[in-house]
Amino acid sequence: MNGDPTVRHHGYRSRSMAKAEVFPPDVVPKLKTYVYRLIDPRNGETFYIGKGQANRVFAHIHDELSQEGDDLSDKLKRIREIRVAGFEVAHVIHRHGMDEATAFEVEAALMDAYPGLSNIAGGTGSNDYGAMHAREIIRRYSAPPADFRHKAILISVNRSAAETSLYEATRYAWKISRRKALQADVILATLRGLIIDAFVADDWLPATAANFPGHEDAPGRLAFVGQEAPTELRAEYVGKRVPDEYRKRGASNPIKYTWTK
To answer: What's the angle, vertex CA 100, arms to CA 96 and CA 105, rounded to 5?
Structure first.
């Protein structure tokens, strides 16, 4: 091997290679804003996607080294496992030279393309503009917009609709004002900008296992006890599109109100 002590594994070198912990000062201005991927050299999996400037891409490694104990995020746990195994995280700058707005879009698109990431938050706009089947696109944009004649709470169930019933996905558990929640006439579950179900709440309670058996405690959050909305309410809203004014691009809050006071 010509005296080369490095060992290649899935296309990446082990820890014996020279570390790249910072970009040279003359390189940093050329990068502008970039989007990067962190890759596990043991299996080639991309496990984190981020956006940053200067030496942001290397900051996660320093974060892992500086933290003690077991209370680590999934991302830092993965980095620690890689280090303990004798390897280094592979850093790939996926696209650079961008402005902030463009980088947000690239980051979000990559998050849609790589399942199982350790990112805590989804990509900007992924709820409404992320990966969709062509039939979903047609269904969503062909649906007539809802005309809100009632005080309605719109709750996006994009992330949880496939994991449980729509009722459970819609009612549990949210950071919401109980005073304002109790004013609502109807609670509308939305998926990719389309209203897919409607419920009415009898009460909003702290989201605890005691109040909602089968659920884990969610401190600081509320959930509702209720039932499916009456037929006339369902007919008025289910299958309709959420109007554009309630779907600000890039907004991350899954809850919206159709009234202001």
So the answer is: 80
